[in-house]
Amino acid sequence: MNSDGPKEGGLAMEHAENPKSFSVLFWNMWFELQNGKRGDGTRIFTYLEELLREHQPDVLGLNEIYRVNAKTESVIERILHSHGYATYFDYLFVAKDGFVVGNVLAYNIEPKELMTLTFAEDSPATDPIYASYRPTVLRGRFDLGTSQLQVFVPHFCAMATRDHRVHHRQRQAFNILLARVGARNAIIGGDFNEPKLTMRFFGIPDGFKDLSGSLFSPTWHLFGNSRWPFYSNLDHILFDAQNNLKIQKFQVLARGPSDHSPLLARFDVL
Fold it and tell me: 4 with 105: CB under 8 angstroms?
């Protein structure tokens, strides 16, 4: 786990002058692009830097970030630091050869609180088929003027044939967790591994809206190959539309080398 304070200047100063604007980017960066299994990582690292320069989000929620071990910072985290972001990492699973894969919450505004939340202890989701899988979600709380925002970064098991029951248990447990900790002014984003219809089946919190892709701009392609007819909208941003958040702009960005597209949302904070 790693947390470093935000650097001074740049976007942090702009945010202080305009506290009612907030942008967040969520992206599953596909760890196989980072560990050498599918190239040397150059493409995914270069594309991340392009996204940071062009869109300059206040907060990022990133899935499938690869570390060679639990204590060694990833290349992704080092890139984020070089662009003025601080990072908070926690792992989801440990592979047999010792490398770890987890989520990162990156930010260039001062957080009020950062934590890792575990799904309900009495839930079946605490005993998944992945022996080392930790059903957790990252949460950051940020003060913007008189409003306090929450950003959640989950990542649920894929609904492959042998995994679908585990996915179902994890989603049920996550809903219990949200009810317990509260979801006012919350933005929840990343790879849910759920198409839109399935998302409705598992439930969206009352008053929340779901932002995702479409038939012509899906958020996921199998193995990152647009020529194959295997695609879906597995990535979502859910946000509390009943309180202080008003969506200003939503984009499904170009996928780049990953099999998932980054999702970018800009909000007015009332």
Answer: no
18, burial (CB in 10 Å: exposed 0-12, middle 13-18, buried 19+) = exposed
Percentage of residues of the chain with pLDDT beyond 90: 51
Q: Confirm if 127 and 80 have CB atoms less than 8 A apart.
A: no
- Based on the structure, what is the number of domains in the chain? 1
The CATH number for 96's domain is 3.60.10.10
C-alpha distances (whole Å) from 135 to each of 21, 29, 90, 97, 98 are: 32, 19, 11, 21, 19
pTM over 0.70, yes/no:
yes
Residues making up the chain, counted from first to last: 270
Structure confidence by residue, pLDDT tens digits, 146-159: 899 999 999 987 77
Buried b (16+ CB within 10 A) or exposed e, 115-131: ebbebbeebbbbebeee
